[in-house]
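Structural prep section.
Before we set up the soaks we want a predicted structure of the protein with KG4 in place, mainly to decide which crystallisation condition to try first. Input record follows.
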Amino acid sequence: MTHILAIESSCDETAAAVVACGGGFDVKSNVIASQIDLHRRYGGVVPEIASRMHIEAVTGVTEQALKEACLTFDGIDAVAVTYAPGLVGALLVGVGYAKSLAFALKKPLLAVHHIEAHIAANYIASPELKPPFVCLVASGGHATVALARDYAEYDVLAVTRDDAPGEAFDKIARVLGLGYPGGPAVQEAAKNGRTDAFVFPRVYFDGAMDFSFSGVKTAVINTIHNYAQKNLPIPLPDIAASFQYAVCDVLSERLVACAVRAGVKSIALAGGVASNHLLRELSQVRAKEAGLNFYCPPPVLCTDNAAMTAVRGYFEFVAKKFAKTDLNAVATLSISV
Ligand code: KG4
Ligand code: ZN
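Run finished without errors. Recording the tokens verbatim:
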């Protein structure tokens, strides 16, 4: 067994985890210190506050992860860390801390790409899943459909050309006064709404599988403003349900289309938006119709966590691809090809 200690600080969660890897993945601990309450009053993540909070939390979260795993630093075989993409100041905290740990402990340092880590969350939940498969990573910062050719080799099949789906959920929630983060709040508000009450736009590009969510976002905001300007009560459940349906319809449809085009037998979901019930349901139904296997991690492994970082880091460990102490944080970076 290889014990990987992982640190994740790409956005607004300071996370540390220990995963025993080899012949499956046994999550020994998965500690997440969320800053959501601090950012809530601003309606979204404030990068400077995020960096400062990571500095305050990272040591305690790491010690807690070791304690829950019943290990000391001596029992760790390598230190994995998210180095890209994300908020650069936030990433720097995790990268700086992990580099010092690895150097002081004389253990290998493993550099992990955040989107690849989200994809790797599927290996924890579904040990039977093996590449090749096509995975949709939908989060607050990303919408990427990737063909996982191997455990560390991918082809990007589609990306968003503007907003990420989680960003659209967060913005709509803010306009509707539902608070931050928007995804769970919109999902809750949509429970009693009709998905066909409003037909919000879906964007398709000629010959490309890419996404665009800025149009649907603007259309929903205009609808809300129209009601407000006429002093009419805003039909919140119907707007939430129709918006959620428009986004999840496109995401699930495109995921399955990419998988069929790539000729794989399985699809998977990942990222914070993959916790969405409707996205999971539509993807599962469409996978079945297309004769594909469907995989999805539990919600706690969909949103940001360090267990997924440890698993992706393990594949670097096996390949002996160790990062050096000059490792830097990178705000924008495509996944490995
Ligand atoms: O993966 P994640 O934790 O962080 C990033 O890497 O961005 O994703 C966070 C995003 C937020 O935008 C949040 O609103 C969204 O995931 N989210 C959801 C749900 N739960 C979280 N979106 C839709 N439905 C949900 N149930
Ligand atoms: Zn993420």
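Observations: Residues 11, 139-141, 166, 169-170, 181-184, 187, 271-273, 275-276, 303-304 surround KG4 (ligand 1) (CB under 6 Å).
Flagged for discussion at group meeting.
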